[in-house]
């Protein structure tokens, strides 16, 4: 008798845990199971106005969420007889989502929590001040999406290009103009190349392998050669009135541009490009055309620098607007999908209830028919036998 009662209680507990899990995983189940009324304005877009956001905060009772969570967690805790590990984990996730504004807005779009459990556990960890990792990552609540990374990479590329253009302008216009600036620049490049070579030898002697390549040693020397060529081209054709551009200066200017770009691209972290003769020739052809247009003139360098800075400014302004537009479009699509999901879930629940009611009705009819069935033939024969006796 005790075993039957324990079995029935275990079965009832399993049903309670499974029903709790079923409610939590249903559309808007976090609100339903925690007994929280879903705010009307919470179903709006992530780009709602500030006054609407304030209204959402006022309508959602965070204290009620914590209070109901404590009651339900005592029932579903794995250490309790009525507990279940999966249901308790989902309940914890429900409380975290409803308490976090950004996650709650994402949850309200579909009515479903699409976040990975492992990721949610990591993001739910808090520091001493009670700030979660997710809130640190998205401090202002804005999503750190693909367009944000593209914007950062684009702006960084334009700014880096502007710095290289400014360095090239200073080298072409001023350093190669006087020997008092050209000679120290060449000496510094030679010193840099020598230090790189010594570092390679020390690494070879210590570890047996050296990360320093021949290109790393020759790169400063090639820059020095380009500076020297530009200096001689200016000294041969220099006129007090105006500098006369020539092919020798063109060669030196294109060489320095190529080395600047090659060092930038190949030294970038994560870049798959490595210095090679083919890549150097390709860059030299491109920068030869650019140097052919610039011809050592300062106003053309300023034009290039202005274009690069304007492009960086445009990227700063355009990418956030694109991100807002894409976010709005995605939110509208997700909201429509969420409405369809809720509608489909309601239809399925109604069908399930109808099937259960139909099954109960049939069982009741079967029970009534069984009660009205006449006695079996053995019964009257036995009674007749008794009467005969």
UniProtKB/TrEMBL annotation:
The keyword Plastid does not apply. It holds the Pfam family DnaJ. Residues 133-143 have a biased composition (Basic and acidic residues). Residues 29-111 form the J domain. Keywords: Membrane, Transmembrane, Transmembrane helix. CDD domains: DnaJ. It comes from the Eukaryota. Residues 114-132 have a biased composition (Acidic residues). InterPro entries: DnaJ_domain, DnaJ_subfamily_B/C, J_dom_sf. The chain crosses the membrane at residues 178-194, 215-233, 248-265, 277-295, 301-326. The keyword Transmembrane helix applies. Residues 371-389 have a biased composition (Low complexity). SMART domains: DnaJ. Residues 114-145, 363-389 are annotated as: Disordered. This is J domain-containing protein.
């Amino acid at each position: 008798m005790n075993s039957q009662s324990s079995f029935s209680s275990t079965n009832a507990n399993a049903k309670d845990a499974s029903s709790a899990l079923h409610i939590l995983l249903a559309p808007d189940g976090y609100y339903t199971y925690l007994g929280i009324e879903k705010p009307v304005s919470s179903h709006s877009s992530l780009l709602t106005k500030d006054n609407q956001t304030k209204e959402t905060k006022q309508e959602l009772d965070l204290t009620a969420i914590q209070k109901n969570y404590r009651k339900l967690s005592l029932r579903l805790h794995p250490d309790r007889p009525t507990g279940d590990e999966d249901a308790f984990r989902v309940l914890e996730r429900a409380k975290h989502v409803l308490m976090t504004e950004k996650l709650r807005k994402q949850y309200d779009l579909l009515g479903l929590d699409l976040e990975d459990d492992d990721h949610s556990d990591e993001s739910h960890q808090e520091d001493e001040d009670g700030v979660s990792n997710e809130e640190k990552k998205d401090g202002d609540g804005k999503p750190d999406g693909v367009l944000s990374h593209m914007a950062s990479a684009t702006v960084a590329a334009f700014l880096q290009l502007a710095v290289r253009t400014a360095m090239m302008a200073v080298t072409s216009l001023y350093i190669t103009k006087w020997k008092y600036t050209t000679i120290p620049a060449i000496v510094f490049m030679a010193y840099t190349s020598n230090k790189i070579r010594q570092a390679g030898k020390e690494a070879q002697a210590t570890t047996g392998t050296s990360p320093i390549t021949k290109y790393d040693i020759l790169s400063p020397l090639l820059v020095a050669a380009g500076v020297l060529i530009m200096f001689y081209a200016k000294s041969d054709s220099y006129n007090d009135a105006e500098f006369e551009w020539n092919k020798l200066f063109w060669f030196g200017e294109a060489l320095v541009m190529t080395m600047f770009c090659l060092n930038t691209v190949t030294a970038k972290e994560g870049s798959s490009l490595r210095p090679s003769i083919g890549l150097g020739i390709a860059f030299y052809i491109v920068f030869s055309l650019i140097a052919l247009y610039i011809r050592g003139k300062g106003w053309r360098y300023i034009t290039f620098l202005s274009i690069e800075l304007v492009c960086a400014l445009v990227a700063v302004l355009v990418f956030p607007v694109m991100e807002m537009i894409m976010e709005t479009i995605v939110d509208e699509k997700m909201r429509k999908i969420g409405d369809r999901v809720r509608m489909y879930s309601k239809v399925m629940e109604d069908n399930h209830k109808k099937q259960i009611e139909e099954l109960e009705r049939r069982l009741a009819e079967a029970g009534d028919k069984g009660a009205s069935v006449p006695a079996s033939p053995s019964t009257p024969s036995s009674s007749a036998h008794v009467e005969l006796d």
